[in-house]
Each structure stands twice: as C-alpha cells, then as structure tokens.
Amino acid sequence: FGLTAIVPAAGIGSRMGADCPKQYLQLAELTILEHTLARLLSYPAIERVIVALAPHDPWFESLPVAADPRVIRVEGGAERAFSVLNALQVADSEWVLVHDAARPCLTHGDLDALIATAMNCGGAILGSRVRDTMKRSDAAGNIIATVEREQLWHALTPQMFPTRTLKRALEEGLMLGATITDEASAMERAGFPVRMVEGRADNIKVTRPEDLSLAGLFLSQQA
Ligand code: CTP
Ligand code: MG
C-alpha cells in the first residue's frame, strides 16, 4: 500500500521573524523543509509528498528535492487548513499523513507507531504528554483551577486519516467557520474517532528563534 504525505509549507513564519519563511532557514547542511521532506521521502511506505507552497514562492524551485518525481506542489491558502485542503484535492491514496513543514525532527519510529494505530483506529495523531502542572485562569489571569494533567497532550504531526473523510471534514468545518488548527480538530468536530499516539517530545515545531538551535541539537542527537 502506498501512502501520501501532505506538507503544508505556505506559512510566512511571523513568530520567527526571519528574512524568509522559517521552512527555508538553514539547519546544518539543509533547509528545515529539506530535512522534513527527507524524513518523509526516506520512509518506504510513503510514495508521494504533496507540498503546499505560498503563491509565487521563490525558494522551493532551487532546492534539489524539487526535482524528485515523488514531490508534487500545490498552491497553499491563507490559513493552514486551506493549504491542506488544496493538497487533498490532488491526493489519490486511501490514507494521508499531514505533517508540518516546520517539524524537521520526525523519526521513522514515530511514523511506524502512528501508521499502525491510525489504520487500526480509523485515524490518529502524534502527541506528547504535558510535563508541567497545568492551570486554568480567567481572562485577567486569576487561577480558577489546577487541571488534571494525565489526559492532556501536546498535539504534534503527522496526523493520519482516510483521505476522503478528512477532505469532507475540513470542507465542512471551514464552511461552518469552525476553528481548525489541525486536522484532528476537523475530524473531532465531524464526530470521527481520533486516537492519540505518544510520540517523541523532540518532534518540535520550529516556531520562535530559540527553536532553531534546539532543532539542530535534536537532529544531531538523532544522527
Ligand atoms: N502553513 C501553511 N499555510 C498557511 C499557514 C501555515 O501551509 N497559510 C504551514 C506552515 O508553513 C507550517 C505549518 O503550516 O509549516 C505550521 O504553521 P505555523 O507553525 O503556524 O507556521 P507559520 O504560519 O509560517 O508561522 P507563524 O504562525 O508564526 O506566522
Ligand atoms: Mg501560523
């Protein structure tokens, strides 16, 4: 069976505040996006990777991976969910994995665990357990409660679902104006089961400047 990976890479990286979108920042020998694509393309079950790029993205074409016949590009949208939806239009495998361009430290071990559980449970995402004591506050910052930590997770990617179901759930959610920050939120809203798979905490999303050196460290530790 062949899997399709969708990589939303159409963001501008405003929190990173660099001269170019963060996925094109250099991390050791390669850009972040090249690391991410290499991790996916070297996984045997992944046959195609659909990359959603900003309109008139001037950077992607010059990367060697752009010439890989398994890499397909589509135009991204104004929000991440639209970028993913555009990629879903050309996905033709039964299952898709959606993985942030800005998560270069994904391991094959986590892919193994995610894929096995998703196919068993109808859909799954990688997550990591929260470590700190969790509080809920009101808008002014007054603490209302200490929240039970046992069942709280950071939602990571990849997130894996049946292609057609995810497409319908995203379309429906966007049409209704729901807040969709990841694929699972659209699936949850539509009433589909989504299983959490405990993944590695080093599968970070490079978001702020300090995350760059952290991702570099994790990559060197994994090598
Ligand atoms: N993304 C996308 N299309 C968008 C917005 C985001 O494809 N319209 C992608 C980003 O390129 C990134 C992933 O979604 O790989 C996760 O989003 P995020 O970390 O928020 O990246 P940015 O939106 O680029 O960063 P920021 O929110 O700081 O501007
Ligand atoms: Mg963003």
**What percent strand?**
25-35%
Percentage of helical residues?
Answer: 25-40%
User: Main sheet?
Assistant: 7 strands, mixed
- Per DSSP E runs of 2 or more residues, the count of β-strands stands at 11
How many H/I helical runs? 6
What bound compounds does this protein have?
Answer: cytidine-5'-triphosphate, magnesium ion
H/E series, N to C?
EEEHEEHEHEEEEHHEH
Instruction: Give the distance, in angstroms, between the N- and C-terminal Cα atoms.
Output: 28 Å
What are the segments in which pLDDT stays under 50 over at least 5 consecutive residues? none
**Which term fits the overall shape?**
globular
Structural class: alpha/beta
Q: Order of strands across the widest beta sheet? A: 5-4-1-6-10-7-11
Backbone CA Rg: 17 Å
> What's the rounded overall pLDDT mean?
97
